[in-house]
Amino acid sequence: MTAPHLTPRARRRAGRGAPLPLLVPALLGLAFLVLPLVALLIRTPWGDLPDQLTSPEVWQALRLSLVCATAATAVSLVLGIPLAWLLARVEFPGRGLVRALVTLPLVLPPVVGGVALLMALGRNGVVGQWLDSWFGITIPFTTAGVVLAEAFVAMPFLVISVEGTLRAADPRYEEAATTLGASRLTAFRRVTLPLIAPGIAAGAVLAWARALGEFGATITFAGNFPGRTQTMPLAVYLALQSDPEAAIALSLVLLTVSIAVLAGLRDRWMTAS
Amino acid sequence: MMTRHIRRTRRTVPVAAAGAAALLALTACSSSDSGGLSSGSSASASSSREPSGTVTVFAAASLEESFTTLGEEFEERHPGTEVTFNFGGSDSLASGITSGAPADVFAAASTRTMKIVTDAGLADGTPAAFVRNELEIATLPGNPDGISSLKDLTGSGLKVVLCDEKVPCGAAAQKALEAGGLELTPVSYEQDVKSALTKVELKEADAAVVYRTDVRAAGDKVAGVTFPESADAVNDYPITLLKDAPNTAAAKAFIELVRSDEGQRVLTEAGFRKP
Amino acid sequence: MTHTGKTPPDGTVPGTAAGGTPAAEGLDAHLVVDRGAFRLDVALRAAPGDVVALLGPNGAGKTTALRALAGLVPLDGGRLGLDGRLLDRTPPESRPVGVVFQDYLLFPHLSALDNVAFGPRCHGATKAEARALAAALLERMGLADHAGAKPRKLSGGQAQRVALARALATRPRLLLLDEPLAALDARTRLDVRAQLRRHLADFEAVAVLVTHDPLDAMVLADRLVVIEHGHVVQEGTPGDVARRPRTDYIAHLVGLNLYQGRADGHTVHVDGSDDGTGTGTGPVIVTTEDLTGPVFVAFPPGAVTLHRERPAASSARNQWRCEVTGMEAHGDQIRADLTGGLRLTADLTTVAAAELGLHPGAEVWATVKAAQTHAYPA
């Protein structure tokens, strides 16, 4: 009996909270993003799912995906945070150009990125030929190659996110730290890093998610070999060639795992901060 | 280098388009109202007349060079027509067609992939093979590793790439290896024949098992090595008119051109053999 | 309190040419920072125990001077000596300098205790040592109960004290405070000012604070250095500066009418008279001091008496016909700005203002007794 009374009030409250010109496109946007996932769920051959989940190949690909995406995120963090700091805090000629170059992998079709990586780090590549002749290291067709390909595509997300947070962070905290006797490195480590931790976390999540779904650069640079370089997206793509239903099931596994990981991390950060 | 690049990009775009079409179909949306083909409907109503309008051809990636040539020839012979190609992996194309992608002609790289379309009842008549393709080993220019047989690829120290078994060239390579009683562990199972070839062209792999036509198309960037086991893994290329073809007249005319002596000449030049 | 020397008004310090030996104790600095359009050129000397306030309007260069002392802005000239050591090229982290920043800049991710322990940690103390020291300092500041609190949980006054404790934790030989009370509301300000005064009095080394608030400066510092346009315009004890302002800015801050002119015995001919004739027939102020040459004359607004008619039998020797240009309430008084015979500010009671029928545009006579003026050499 209370429902009719509540409804108009609830509507009024919603109307006051979000103006219609914002609410409508917002909901449309949400629907646009969610609908394909819903469709995927609707068309999932649920009966096949147990078979897929018990197949060792799927687990192999899934494990490789998680390991490589995490490693690529680690590489991005180690190289990307200092790069973001450089872009945000140090004035140097051509900084705008460098920033544009950093974001290049975002606009580059991943397959082109993979070819570019081959030309740079391949056995016959600009740098790769020296790696091969001096150290006997060849990167293509190895798990390390997968990590590099994913990091190449994912790192810009981290750099952009961290740079933005750094720009928003008050550089005077670093100054305050130096007046207390902290070297620039100590100030960065003990003051700046904790201050920009949320931005780093957001960037790392973006980078990890991007790395997890990476396909084009990976298959071009690292090839496709089960257990070594075949990540889930590659497995999904190849399954799509012969067995679309299996591909859907595989996609679902990838989606579920990534959502579980992201949601889990989010909870941890929420409680940690 | 430049032409190679253009060819790559042209090829990847339709693949993506086919993927998008497949996804659209998965989301239960109708995709039959795709624009740009409206002129076809009037042409199909009067099939006896001179072909006109746009004819859309879904063709296996390996047919790209020869079909592009034939397409230009077709447009020259029948002014007012335009041939639009969607080159890609035969499987992607087939699933695109079964998902409702608007196409007039389908030329597949294997009878297996064609079967997907015929099983779905989408082929008009029985598809017939118009060419066949054989496997060849693509090696580095000058064949520095002295590869002369399929067995040589199993030697250690060689980086060999194969197509994934799920795509036709991979299935064919597997068949050839089985015929020779050989076991081969490649460094990578590539997603299609072109990317397998690219790995050799970029000298990242020492050899790849690909189609004769691909070796031919790569020019002097790779050297081809024939092997007897390829006879056991011949790929027939069937072509068919599609039932829901928006432009039947032009589609029929295009298939005729492919089957004609002129068509066969262009295809043979590209490395295909007559069926 | 002893002062190692007085700085002449032109801002140069004798014997501070590059290479000279800085004073053995305390601060001996000549700060030159060139920013194209703006040039800071300020000499500062202070003995241990001194609290010096840099006072000046916004954009005068006070904060730049402070940042130069801290090493956050490089010197383009001059030098910086502290306790006999030249610090010109010393990076901020190696200077024995502590800074309390305007908005404190307490590290938001660290507790009050860890904020204070940060400096000792950087100076090589173990975590336990640093925390013990920090706890003792917070105790002294009366903040023992808030040691574990994150800065966002602290009130403005508490945050200010944590910031002071943090700056003191490295035992600096030079303590810098940038507008230490500016971030506080009026009520808190009163308490914190008194506490800060106590802590600064206890501080055994040199303290330099920057402020644009004359009250803060006068309460906290035992010497004022007034900076305008990057240069020192006046320097002295708070009482000295308040009594004998040398620029309109200071006169305004301390609430005095100030005029510059030439004295000839007990008469002062005011420069740049309002009549604009420039003939030297401008206003004249009669004073009790007997001086010759360039002088300043100052008198407080309360010394001005206003009359509707020219006072016939007034004992006041100084009389000017003026026009009211503006009025505003000033506490329980009315402050009137006048122009005409002399540009001046007058304070009068609300009743007096009503009786005079004072309003902007009204014509009045202003009188000031010679005994209430104060003339001093320029």
From TrEMBL, chain A:
UniProt keyword annotations, A-Z: Cell membrane, Membrane, Molybdenum, Transmembrane, Transmembrane helix, Transport
Domain ABC transmembrane type-1 positions: 62-263
Bilayer topology: Multi-pass membrane protein
GO-annotated cellular components: plasma membrane
GO molecular function, one term: molybdate ion transmembrane transporter activity
PANTHER family the UniProt entry points to: MOLYBDENUM TRANSPORT SYSTEM PERMEASE PROTEIN MODB
Family: Belongs to the binding-protein-dependent transport system permease family. CysTW subfamily.
Protein name: Molybdenum transport system permease
Upper classification of the organism: Bacteria, Bacillati, Actinomycetota, Actinomycetes, Kitasatosporales
Automatic annotation (TrEMBL), chain B:
SUPFAM superfamilies xrefs: Periplasmic binding protein-like II (SSF53850)
Binding site for molybdate: 62, 90, 193, 211
CDD domains in the cross-refs: PBP2_ModA_like_1
Record has NADP as a keyword: no
Keywords: Metal-binding, Molybdenum, Signal
InterPro entries per record: ModA (IPR005950), ModA/WtpA (IPR050682)
A Pfam family the protein falls into: SBP_bac_11
Any single biological process term in GO: molybdate ion transport
Domain of life (superkingdom): Bacteria
Signal peptide extent: 1-30
Any GO MF annotation of the entry: molybdate ion binding
UniProt similarity note: Belongs to the bacterial solute-binding protein ModA family.
Protein name according to UniProt: Molybdate-binding protein
Organism: Streptomyces ruber
TrEMBL record, chain C:
Record bears the keyword Nucleotide-binding: yes
GO MF term set: ATP binding; ATP hydrolysis activity
Ranges of residues in domain Mop: 313-377
Residue span(s) of domain ABC transporter: 24-254
Region (Disordered): 1-21
SUPFAM superfamilies with a match to the protein in the record: MOP-like, P-loop containing nucleoside triphosphate hydrolases
Domain of life: Bacteria
Alphabetically ordered keywords of this record: ATP-binding, Molybdenum, Nucleotide-binding, Transport
Gene Ontology terms describing biological process: molybdate ion transport
Bias kind Low complexity: ranges: 7-21
InterPro entries reported in the protein's UniProt record: AAA+_ATPase, ABC_SmlMolc_Importer, ABC_transporter-like_ATP-bd, ABC_transporter-like_CS, Mo/tungstate-bd_C_term_dom, Mop_domain, P-loop_NTPase, Transp-assoc_OB_typ1
The protein's name: ABC transporter ATP-binding protein
